[in-house]
Amino acid sequence: MNLRDNLRMQYIKGEHFCFKELADRHLFSPQDAQCAYDALYKRGLIPAHDKPSIILSTSANRATHEFAIWNKDKKKRRVLGGNSLVIAGDILADEWIQHTRKNIRNIANSNDNGFCFLALDAHNIPIKDNTVDVVWDVGGALWYSANEEKSENFHSLFQEYRRILTESGIIVFDAFEGIPVSPDGSKYVKSTYSRIQSCPTLIEEVKASFIIHKILNGNKRMIALQKFSPPVMP
User: Which is it for the CA torsion 16, 189, 56, 129, positive or negative?
Assistant: First the structure.
């Protein structure tokens, strides 16, 4: 079974739709996503509001976090003259768009608004090199690929993210524990950061070309990896 079919089995059938709603209510809400955005901006990790900005999510699910971030980003940039584009991508976007909130669906289906929701394979992103300022991946593609047994998947994904990021662009993902994997919230899994840290080859790959920033604290802790170019050995 390929990744797309496996995810569809987990998230599209029956009661599994409640995973995202459960996480939004009790774990990491759209308002928390906006707090993370503010923290990233204060640290200088997001372009100034008088500049254009492109934020890409590769595992948007119902796109509630992405929509909240877009609402905050567009308001700031409209005042100061910058342009905001948030791309909410997901390998199952065609299915999710039918089940997301009406206001998100309507805006995603309109034109020239700076927010779009589309089907996207995170390992093969149809975006030019050095284009994206922020890759948002909370409990998403990185989490699925961060294990030693399938390190080639992580490497492929990580290199794709690095390719599309601007010179000092960032990858943002979860470092808080307790992502629910059962409809009633009784079962939890490790964060993306914990999974990466538990695999020596993966964390070394991260450190080789990214600066690690810790954003927020406690049960809302996030990681931002800032791209840099390693020095060329003579």
Answer: negative
